[in-house]
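Weekly sync, protein design subgroup
Attendees: M.S., D.O., the rotation student, P.L. (late)

Item 1: inverse folding check
M.S. brought a backbone from last month's batch and wanted to see whether the design step gives back something sensible before we order anything. D.O. pointed out we never logged the input encoding, so this time it goes straight into the notes. Structure tokens as presented (210 positions):
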């Protein structure tokens, strides 16, 4: 038997496959630029390393009370420098463990895809996920991957231990007598870190004042 011909129908077979979420290089570059500005604003608050490592300011504390007092003052004054020390410790430990570094890079790519690259809503089971739900979900997945499924957590914990030991040693032996604990100048980088990823989103215009 011969199938009867008919006019072409606009069916599912004739429709092109649904296009996936488009990658927007401009959005990624915008986030990268804001991250760079955020990091630069923080690093500018750091003290000169010549002041951090001034050999004439080091002395042995007389007792635990003095060591604790020194540590508190030095942490308040050198907090940005101490943060850099911790970041350097984590970086070195990650470079010594390429597998952990690859896991962190994969997680970073996943975060960028969910919050920056993907332009269409994320739907699971006919339910559109809100930004808060996506944030909680990605945080939970990252926590499980880092601390339960891989050795990344152990590497990060080891790096933090090294960094905190160095900070404690420096803070307890560096006499803070010549330091000026002045935080009057508010840092421009004290914005919410999450706003870096949401700054590009369009917000409804404010109502006009009558």
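Designed sequence read out in the meeting:
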């Amino acid at each position: 038997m011969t199938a009867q011909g008919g006019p072409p129908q606009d069916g599912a077979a004739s429709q092109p496959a649904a296009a996936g979420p488009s990658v927007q290089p401009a959005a990624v570059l915008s986030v990268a630029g804001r991250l760079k500005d955020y990091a630069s604003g923080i690093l500018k608050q750091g003290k000169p390393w010549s002041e951090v490592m001034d050999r004439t300011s080091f002395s042995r504390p007389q007792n635990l009370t003095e060591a604790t007092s020194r540590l508190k003052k030095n942490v308040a004054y050198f907090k940005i420098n101490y943060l850099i020390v911790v970041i350097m410790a984590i970086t070195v430990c990650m470079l010594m463990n390429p597998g952990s570094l690859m896991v962190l890079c994969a997680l970073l790519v996943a975060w960028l895809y969910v919050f920056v690259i993907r332009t269409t809503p994320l739907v699971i089971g006919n339910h559109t996920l809100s930004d808060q739900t996506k944030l909680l979900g990605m945080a939970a997945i990252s926590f499980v991957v880092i601390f339960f499924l891989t050795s990344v957590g152990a590497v990060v914990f080891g790096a933090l231990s090294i960094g905190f030991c160095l900070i404690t040693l420096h803070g307890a032996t560096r006499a803070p007598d010549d330091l000026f604990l002045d935080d009057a100048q508010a840092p421009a980088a004290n914005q919410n870190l999450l706003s870096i990823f949401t700054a590009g989103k369009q917000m409804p215009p404010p109502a006009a004042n009558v």
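Discussion: The longest helix spans residues 152-173. Residues 11-21, 184-190, 202-208 have pLDDT under 50 and may be disordered.
Action: P.L. to compare against the previous round before Friday.
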